[in-house]
Recover the amino acids of this structure.
C-alpha cells in the first residue's frame, strides 16, 4: 500500500454546501486524514496568524476566488506576507466558477498557484490532483 503523504487539506470557499461535499468526498475516498474548511479567506488567514496554529499548515489548499470579505486573491496576498513564518509551502489550487480571462491569466502567471480549476469539479479530477501530489512528494524522498 502506498504511503499517504497528504496529511491536511484546506478548502477555502464561501459555499457551505460545496465545502461539505468536498469534505465528504475526501473522507469517503480516504484521500487524506484531515480536511479543514474555512468560509472566507480572512478566517483562514486569522487561523494562520495565531502562533498556536503554526504547525497546522496544510499540504494542499483548494481556494475559491469569489468570496465576500476577502477573496482568493486577497488570501494569497495575505498568505504571502506571512509565509516566511512557516516551514513549508502548501500547493494552492484555485477552484472557482470564475471564467474571467484576467483571473485565468493571473493564475497562470502566479508562482504560488498550481492550477486553475473550473467548478463543478468531478471526482476523477480531484482524485487525480491528490494522486499527482503524492507522486511528486514521493519523488523527493
Amino acid at each position: 500500500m502506498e504511503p499517504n503523504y497528504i496529511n491536511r487539506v484546506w478548502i477555502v470557499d464561501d459555499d457551505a454546501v460545496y465545502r461539505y461535499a468536498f469534505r465528504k468526498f475526501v473522507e469517503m475516498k480516504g484521500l487524506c486524514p484531515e480536511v479543514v474548511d474555512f468560509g472566507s479567506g480572512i478566517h483562514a488567514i486569522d487561523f494562520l496568524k495565531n502562533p498556536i496554529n503554526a504547525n497546522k499548515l496544510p499540504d494542499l489548499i483548494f481556494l475559491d476566488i469569489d468570496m465576500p470579505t476577502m477573496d482568493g486573491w486577497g488570501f494569497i496576498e495575505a498568505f504571502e506576507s506571512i509565509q516566511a513564518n512557516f516551514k513549508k509551502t502548501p500547493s494552492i489550487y484555485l477552484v472557482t466558477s470564475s471564467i474571467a480571462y484576467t483571473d485565468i491569466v493571473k493564475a497562470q502567471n502566479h508562482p504560488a498557484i498550481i492550477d486553475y480549476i473550473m467548478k463543478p469539479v468531478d471526482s476523477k479530477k480531484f482524485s487525480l490532483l491528490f494522486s499527482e501530489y503524492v507522486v511528486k512528494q514521493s519523488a523527493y524522498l
In short: The two ends are 16 Å apart (CA to CA).
